[in-house]
Amino acid sequence: MRNIIGYGGGKSGGGSSTPTEAPDSLHSVAYARVLDFVSEGEIEGFVNGLQSVYLEGTPLANADGTLNFQNVAVDYRSGTQDQDAIPGFPSVENETAVGVELTATTPWVRAVTNTQLSAVRVQLSVPALSRADTSSGNINGYRVEYAIDLAVDGGALQQVLASAFDGKTTSKYARTHRIELPRAKTGWAIRVRRITPNANSGTVADVTRIESIAEVIDARLRYPNSALVGLRIDARQFSNVPTRSYHLRGRIIRVPSNYDPATRTYTGLWDGTFKTAYSNNPAWIFYDLVLHQRYGLGERVSAAMIDRWSLYQIGQYCDELVPDGRGGQEPRFTCNCFLQQRNDAYAVLQDLAGVFRGMAYWAASNVVAVADMPSTASYLFHSGNVIDGRFTYVGSARRARKTVSLVSWNDPADQYRAKVEHVEDGEGIARYGIQQTEVTAFGCTSQGQAHRVGQWILLTSRLETETVTFKVALDAAVVMPGSIIEVADPARAGRANGGRVRSADGRTVVLDRTVLVAEGDILLVNLPDGTAQRRTVSRVDGQSLTVSADWSQPVQPEAVWSVERADLKTQLFRVVSVTEDDGLTFEISALEYNPSKFSAIDNGTRIEARPVSVLPPSVQPAPTDVKLATYSVVDQGIAITTMMIEWQAAASAVAYTVEWRRDNGEWVTAGRTGSQSLEVRNIYAGTYVARVRAINALDVASLPAYSAETRLNGKTSPPPVVGTLIATAIVFGIRLDWAFPTGPLDVERTELWWSKTPNRASATALGDFAFPANTHTLMGLAAGAGFYFWARLVDKSGNVGAWYPSGNGVLGMSSDQASDILSYMKGQIGKTQLAGDLLSAVDSIAPPMAGSDEDFAGDGTVYAGIVSTQSVLEEAGRAMAQQVTTMQATVAQSSAAVQVAQQAVAEQGGRLAAMYTIKTQIAANGRTYLAGIGVGVENDAGVIESQVLIAADRFAVLHPNGNSVLMPFVVQGGQVFMNSAFIADGTITSAKIGDSIQSSNFVAGQTGWRLSKSGLFENNGSGVGGRRVDTSALTQIFDGNGVLRVRMGVW
């Protein structure tokens, strides 16, 4: 014990101390080292130095050289074969974020299975570390101990590290431990334990966390042929490893030796050799991708197996400068893409070929690329070199004709984020409406190029809508997919425009037929080398034509030729496929080709239609300048006013149909004429409008052309009213008769209208009946069906008279008399073959037919037999099949028989019948008694009727009910008996009520009504309306409360 001796005054008391906080003693500065593999090498590199490096979307450097992030080091390798390793990256690490809290009660365990690893790095951190002294308030440091254990190949965990966080920090402090990994066969288990218990106190900040674990492979790697960017980033500027992006010029590829990719120019003729340079021309990117041995098809495809000359033409087409839509110019096609994942080779090549509007295919052991670009036709096809001379055309579906295109592209001004370019075809929208498609422009980083992609899609779908298919022999199968061909089809052209050469001598060619041709026209001929060549005709002498220039090869006899004139050209198609049919024939499919679309896409020029037929068009132009006028003449003392309709002719029209209307009434057809005017006599005064349609030789009508509304003075009175309209009831129909008024009539027809209601507003037209017809029978109605009818007259000028009657229509009803209907039906049923078969007697079976021919079932007095006959008849215009089975038993003069007959008949005149009958018959006392059922359908004289007939003295429907049998329906002796019936709508000519008749809701003294045969009639009002009771001598009326209010009669 130490004694403390002090000196002081005599006053007690004292002062208090101020709490203090110890300074932070734990400081961490971490650096993230990131090695990004950015491309297969060798590449051109950064577009603009450090301005092309982006961290979290922000460039590392500004245009003035200032840095947006400090303490960031960048190193770069372009991906050459012998490049040096990037300093500071002696190992390969793959870091995985963990971000969990480590507690004393729950260790953190992770299994590592990559047996190639050299070590792992475990990063731990404390968000803050301190302890507050509760007595003094001072804040000091704290210590948290932890340990790391390692297990190899599933063995026991052994401690390999023990350490502690010891000190004070008010901000996040992190440290990393490298744990060396011994060799293992299956892997390791890493466990991190917190040894110091968690304080779980508000005065102690001691939370520990596992931040990440990194797998480490120790090696100094050069990564040959891989373009790399290495970054060392100060962790104080980022909470996590930042996202990185780089603006690069990509692969250095092979390009033609006479090509400058920077200026996109070609010098002189190309000798077929290459040099290496950076280029974003899609044709040479395609060439590189096909031939590269590491990431392309170079192990399977050699340079000799790809058509470099076609790619050279495509590459030049891609480099041509076109308007960019903003007042400048840009290359037609560029490709700036980044292939990040493995995919099917064919799909990747097709995507890449799609950049230059092309396709790639394999043919004759070669990779061939073609593009949709202006090309000359390579071969001519005519019915003379096509099998059977047959061209089959198929048009695209209307829904395939797109009018609006949404094209996705990558905007370099917005860090290559995806944007959408809206493109629309105004003419297509006017014709087909809005039909939208969405596409992604592969490798497109130009808004102008994206717009051209959309224009190409829309114009192609509108202009190139037809596919042609035909078959050729081996000698004509010289075209390849992508080739442009010319088709001279005389059936579509409308006149002879081709054939085969009869003979040739230098510039003079003798044709095999006479065609319409003149000097200055074009002669096309297929030459021996498989190409089509055209020359201008300088002289015509019958079938002998002389051209103005020599042919590149002598024209051979039987070569296919065609003639082009200003009004008739050959059709152009692009070959889509050539399919071998049977070894000697091939089927060619080609899509319509319109060369004028390319200038329209690039420069917005007008699209010119190619004249490929002299036949009238399928879309007929309308006439123009439709006018109305009148003139009057006196005929037999009567002034007749005539309307004259005139118009200007329409192209390709051979006739016109004319309609007119007065005062916004109904359109009246004036007729069809081949001239440019038509007259309508006897018009009435009013405001007139005429419309005229042009019709071409294919009977295709144009849209109507209308005149202006014109006030004309003509007849002032409409046709008179119909004199009478009478409706007469007939069985299942109504006969209408009408009469015309007296005096001179200018009537053309009578209009009849009908409706189920008396209101004419709901009426519809029944028919027009030419004058002087004055009767019409309406058949096929139900019995008792009622309709209302109106009639009016129309004169020869189309003027319409007033209705008769002016108000409610004339009521007409089909017959509801049961006797008339039954009589009619009896006659109709008796005419049918089914009724005749059903009512005919059963043929008797003679004893020799009762069984077999040798063993009879009886003798001539008593016998029984069963006979079944089947017969089929086929003769000119008639076929019949019949089966009849008859059973008969006979004793003396009495017999009983049952017969089942089936028959089907078909005749050329249209008569059809299908019948099935069952008949039972007895013969006794010299009389025959019959009962049977017949089912059939017959078509006689165009009237089809199905029926079921029953022949019997008594017909009954039986209903078994336990031990008893009920008979709800019986027909006996021509009378019908029903036990109980519910009838929705009934018509009764004469009814006798045996007891009473009442409403379905009758309750005595409350609701409904009832009439009994005693003469008592009770009628109750609805609700509280009261009731009335009538007898033969007394009438009584009660109010709603049952109080008698009126009494009349004798009581």
UniProtKB/TrEMBL annotation:
Coiled coil: none annotated. Residues 341-501 form the Tip attachment protein J domain. Residues 1-22 are annotated as: Disordered. Residues 92-219 form the Tip attachment protein J HDII-ins2 domain. It comes from the Bacteria. Residues 1-16 have a biased composition (Gly residues). Residues 898-1028 form the Tip attachment protein J central straight fiber domain. InterPro entries: FN3_dom, FN3_sf, GpJ_CSF, GpJ_HDII-ins2, Ig-like_fold, J_dom, Viral_Tip_Attach_Protein. PANTHER family: FELS-1 PROPHAGE HOST SPECIFICITY PROTEIN-RELATED, GIFSY-2 PROPHAGE HOST SPECIFICITY PROTEIN J, PHAGE LAMBDA. This is Host specificity protein J. It comes from Ralstonia solanacearum (Pseudomonas solanacearum). The lineage of its organism: Bacteria, Pseudomonadati, Pseudomonadota, Betaproteobacteria, Burkholderiales.
